[in-house]
Design goal:
mainly alpha
Length: 111
């Protein structure tokens, strides 16, 4: 992903992050959201923490985005693209941990 320009990353982020900030905030408050993902020592998973950051980023105007925001957008794009490429379960995608993990990162694969 590092070969993509910041503008390309912003565009791809806009395409892949298909949950609106309010939708993502609501999902992050569910047990389903909090039960998935890799936890780094604390109680919150990497994806859940990323979801909170995505909400903040999506609420900013383009001219308000910092270099750190763009770096996080790059991380989000990479995660979503890798996770989607791995493929999800063959049945019951709607209630799968795979979908919940992607949704923590702002992407609903059923949309």
């Amino acid at each position: 992903m590092s070969e993509h320009s910041d503008d390309e990353i912003r565009k791809r982020f806009g395409e892949l992050v298909n949950l609106q900030p309010k939708e993502l905030e609501e999902f992050l408050g569910t047990d389903e959201s909090q039960e998935v993902g890799q936890k780094d020592g604390g109680g919150e998973s990497v994806g859940h923490r990323s979801g909170r950051r995505i909400v903040d980023i999506k609420r900013k105007r383009k001219d308000e985005l910092s270099d750190d925001d763009v770096a996080h957008m790059r991380k989000v794009v990479g995660y979503i693209e890798r996770h989607v490429a791995q493929g999800g379960p063959q049945d019951d995608v709607e209630h799968s941990r795979w979908r919940a993990s992607l949704m923590n990162w702002g992407h609903d694969p059923l949309r």
